[in-house]
Amino acid sequence: MANDQRIKLYATSPHPCSYFDDRDAKTLFIDPELEINPRLYTHLSQRGFRRSGPHLYKPYCEDCKQCVASRIPVELFAPSRNQRKVINRNCDLRVVCKPEMDEAAYPLYERYINTRHQDGDMYPASREQFDSFLVDSMPCTEYAHFYDEDGSLVAVAVMDALDDGLSAIYTFFDPDLTRRSLGKFAILWQIHAAAERLLPYLYLGYWIKNCDKMRYKTDYRPIELLAEKRWVRIN
C-alpha cells in the first residue's frame, strides 16, 4: 500500500449477493479504525476499493469475479448523440456543490428509493439508512445539488474528491422527472466537473456485465476496467 503502510483487512462471512439471487457474496473491508487521508483513499480507489458510508470495501468472492471496478478517462470522453440530448435537456439546471446536504435532500431520497428501488435491499428508505449511507462521509466528500429554475431540488450527486479524480458514490433524483434522465445527466456533469478540475478520472464503481442495473457504465466511452490488477481501456 501507499508508503509501505500496513493495512488490516477484514473479510465478511458469506451473505446474500445484492445483484444475483442464486449466489452469496463476501466483502473485504479496510480497517474501520484506520485514518484515511486523500492519498491513501486515492491509492485504494486505484486498486478497486469503493466507499459506502464511512467504510471502504471491495468484493471478495472466491468463485465470482463479476464486479469490475470502472473509471472514465475524462479528457478522452466524447458524449454520444443521446448523451448530448440529455445535456441539452438539462441545461436549465443550476448545480451547486456543498459540504453538506440540503434539508430537502432526504425527502427526495425517500421518494427516489420508494419509487425506483422497491426490489432492493435499501427499500423502504429510512432516515437512519440515509445518514449511515450518505451523510456519514469523508472530509473530501461533496454533494452536488441540482436545482431547477424554480429553485426546487431535483437531484443530488454524492462524490468524493481524490488526488486523481472524482469518485461517484451515489445519485438520487426526482423519480417523476423521467424525461430529464437525471441519473445520466449527473454522470455527465461529474465527468465535466472532473475535467474542469484537471483531474484525469471519474471513478464510477463496479460494472457488472450480467446485471442490467449495473451494466450501464459502459455507455460512457472510453471506459477503463480493472482486470487482474491492471486498468484496461475499452473504446
From TrEMBL:
<feature type="domain" description="N-end aminoacyl transferase N-terminal">
    <location>
        <begin position="15"/>
        <end position="85"/>
    </location>
</feature>
<protein>
    <recommendedName>
        <fullName>Aspartate/glutamate leucyltransferase</fullName>
        <ecNumber>2.3.2.29</ecNumber>
    </recommendedName>
</protein>
<dbReference type="GO" id="GO:0005737">
    <property type="term" value="C:cytoplasm"/>
</dbReference>
<dbReference type="InterPro" id="IPR016181">
    <property type="entry name" value="Acyl_CoA_acyltransferase"/>
</dbReference>
<keyword id="KW-0963">Cytoplasm</keyword>
<comment type="similarity">
    <text>Belongs to the R-transferase family. Bpt subfamily.</text>
</comment>
<feature type="domain" description="N-end rule aminoacyl transferase C-terminal">
    <location>
        <begin position="106"/>
        <end position="226"/>
    </location>
</feature>
<dbReference type="Pfam" id="PF04376">
    <property type="entry name" value="ATE_N"/>
</dbReference>
<dbReference type="GO" id="GO:0071596">
    <property type="term" value="P:ubiquitin-dependent protein catabolic process via the N-end rule pathway"/>
</dbReference>
<dbReference type="InterPro" id="IPR007472">
    <property type="entry name" value="N-end_Aminoacyl_Trfase_C"/>
</dbReference>
<dbReference type="InterPro" id="IPR007471">
    <property type="entry name" value="N-end_Aminoacyl_Trfase_N"/>
</dbReference>
<keyword id="KW-0012">Acyltransferase</keyword>
<keyword id="KW-0808">Transferase</keyword>
<dbReference type="Pfam" id="PF04377">
    <property type="entry name" value="ATE_C"/>
</dbReference>
<dbReference type="InterPro" id="IPR017138">
    <property type="entry name" value="Asp_Glu_LeuTrfase"/>
</dbReference>
<comment type="function">
    <text>Functions in the N-end rule pathway of protein degradation where it conjugates Leu from its aminoacyl-tRNA to the N-termini of proteins containing an N-terminal aspartate or glutamate.</text>
</comment>
<dbReference type="InterPro" id="IPR030700">
    <property type="entry name" value="N-end_Aminoacyl_Trfase"/>
</dbReference>
<dbReference type="GO" id="GO:0008914">
    <property type="term" value="F:leucyl-tRNA--protein transferase activity"/>
</dbReference>
<dbReference type="GO" id="GO:0004057">
    <property type="term" value="F:arginyl-tRNA--protein transferase activity"/>
</dbReference>
